[in-house]
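Our consortium's second objective concerns turning raw sequence data into structural hypotheses that experimental partners can test. To show how far this objective has progressed, the report includes one record in full. It was chosen at random from the queue rather than selected for favorable results. The single chain below, 117 residues long, was entered without modification.
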Amino acid sequence: MKRILIVDDDAAVLEVLTRALSSLYDVSAAHDGPEALNLAGQQPVDLVITDYLMPIMTGDELIVRFREVQPEAKVLMITGHGDLLDREGPEWWREVRHLGKPFRIQVLRETVAAMFV
């Protein structure tokens, strides 16, 4: 079974995403980047789903640090700031798969499934 780590500082979003994927995958959840990195040091992860804008550490900062520990893990960025990131066009944004908030749970499931094909 594929392992997914979901990282979001919004407890309600974290709960919804965890519920949406836990019947299909082995899902762990973290409320911020440091907690996610701690979990990454304990077990391998196939996919990290992370929010972009979080306190302590942004999603792009988390990705850089996470890849130091688990370079083979796939990444899905979720954000309500996709328009801004599209305009600014940082390199990491073009390289990472992403979903704009809000999104439908079915779209999330389909996107995650496609990442494992």
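The partners drew two points from this record. The chain has a mean pLDDT of 91. The chain has six helices and five strands. Both points have been shared with the crystallography group to help prioritize constructs.
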